[in-house]
Amino acid sequence: MTELNNYLAEHYLNEAQLSAATGVDMDELDALIGDRLLPAPSYVVTDAGKLCSFVFGEMAAPGATAGRYFHPSQLAWLARAREAVALHGAQGAEAYLQKRFAGDFAAALATLNLTTWRLRDCFDDAGTPIAEGLRARIDSAWTHLLNGTFSLCVANPISEAHIAHKEVLQEKLTRLSENGGRTAFPPQQLPAMRELIDAYAAASMPFSPVEYPVSSRKRLVEDLRAKLHATDD
C-alpha cells in the first residue's frame, strides 16, 4: 500500500465501510449529500491517480486506491440529517439543520471569545454579538462543513464546538505567528506559544502525505516549532 492508502485507511471510511457502519445504502447517502444535508466526502481518489479535495483541489496520487473517503464523524452528521428529514421532510430539513448549526456554532464562538481568542468581528467588548460578523462566520462554516473541508482538517469534526475550537485556535496561532512567518519571539512568550501550537496540533488532522508539505499544519506546527527552537538557541 502507498503512504496515502495507509493514511486514508487509518483516518477515513470508504463507501463500503461507511454503508456497513450506518446500514444506509450509498444511494440515500448521495441523495443527502446532493440535497446539502450531509457533508461531501473528505477525499475522492480518481481512477487516474488523482487525490481530490475541496481544500487542495487535485493532487497527483499514483498508486492510491480509487474511491470516496469519509471521516468517521460522518456517522454523527448522518444521524442528524436523517432525523431532520424524519421530523421536517425533505423540504424543511435543510432550514432546520442550518438553523441548528448556526445556534450551536454561535454558542461555541461566544465561549471561545471569552476563553481563547477575542473575535472582534463577532462580539463587542461586553460580549454582545455583532450580527453581521457572526452571520458571516456561521455562513462560511456551514458551507465548509458541507463541502467536506472540516472533515479533512479538523481532528474530530463531530460537533460545532469541536470545529469552532480548531478554527479559533488556528486563527489565534496564525495571527500571533504572522501566519508562521515570524522568526523571533520574546523569551517570556515562548511557553504560551508552545502551548498554543500543541493545542492546535491536537485539534487538527495530521494531513495526508500528499498534502502535508503545503498544509497549515506543517506551517503552523512543524515549521513554527523549529523557529521557536531557534529562538531558544
Mind explaining what this structure looks like?
The protein is of the alpha+beta class. It has helices spanning 3-11, 15-22, 26-34, 74-115, 131-147, 150-153, 160-176, 190-203, 216-232; strands spanning 13-14, 43-45, 50-53, 57-60, 67-70. Helix 7 packs antiparallel against helix 8 (190-203) and helix 8 (190-203) packs antiparallel against helix 9 (216-232).
Give keywords.
233 residues, alpha+beta, five-stranded antiparallel β-sheet, 9 helices, 59% helix, 7% strand
How much of the sequence lies in strands comes to 5-15%
Largest sheet: 5 strands, antiparallel
Structural class: alpha+beta
In total, the number of strands is: 5
Mean pLDDT: 96
Spatial arrangement of strands, main beta sheet:
1-5-2-3-4
Report helical residue fraction.
Answer: 55-70%
How large is the radius of gyration?
19 Å
Shape: flat
Distance between the termini: 41 Å
Compact overview of the structure:
The chain has 233 residues and is α+β, with helices and mostly antiparallel strands. The chain has helices spanning 3-11, 15-22, 26-34, 74-115, 131-147, 150-153, 160-176, 190-203, 216-232, and strands spanning 13-14, 43-45, 50-53, 57-60, 67-70.
